[in-house]
Every structure is written in structure tokens, then in C-alpha cells.
Backbone:
């Protein structure tokens, strides 16, 4: 399985992610993390309901995996298939 999340750009205070839609691979959602305001997603679900959407969950999961990688020195594949 290909990871649907990629980091596009990061600065000291923000990270810009792209999350590829699982059902429509031609659609990409932009998710931002800002140290002051937290997560933001450009999708309609988040825009209208202001609740955590699937894309944010994927980004959080991705960040957790990155954290684990840095702490344990494992690879993505090793974590993903446990
Ligand atoms: Zn979203």
C-alpha cells in the first residue's frame, strides 16, 4: 500500500501536507499544520462542519509513524505491517 500522505513544504511553524484521496486518486487534499492553530484541511467536510476529517486523521497517523521511526530507527514498512 502506498502512503497517501506526503509533505510538500515545511517551515519552523507550519507544515503543508498533501493527502491523496483513496476513492478518487486524482483528487488531492491540502492539509496544513500550524503550531498556533493546529491542523487545517481544505476539504468540504472540514470547511462546513469544522470537525476532524479523514485527511487530518491520515496526517496525524503519518506524523505518529514518523515519530516512532525517529525513536526506534525502524522503517515505514516495518511499522505499517505490524
Ligand atoms: Zn479533509
Residues:
Amino acid at each position: 500500500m502506498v502512503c497517501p500522505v506526503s509533505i510538500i513544504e515545511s517551515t519552523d511553524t507550519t507544515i503543508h501536507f498533501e493527502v491523496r484521496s483513496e476513492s478518487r486518486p486524482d483528487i488531492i487534499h491540502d492539509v496544513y499544520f500550524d503550531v498556533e492553530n493546529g491542523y487545517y484541511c481544505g476539504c468540504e467536510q472540514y470547511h462546513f462542519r469544522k470537525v476532524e476529517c479523514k485527511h487530518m486523521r491520515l496526517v496525524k497517523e503519518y506524523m505518529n509513524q514518523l515519530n516512532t521511526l525517529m525513536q526506534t530507527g525502524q522503517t515505514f514498512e516495518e511499522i505499517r505491517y505490524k
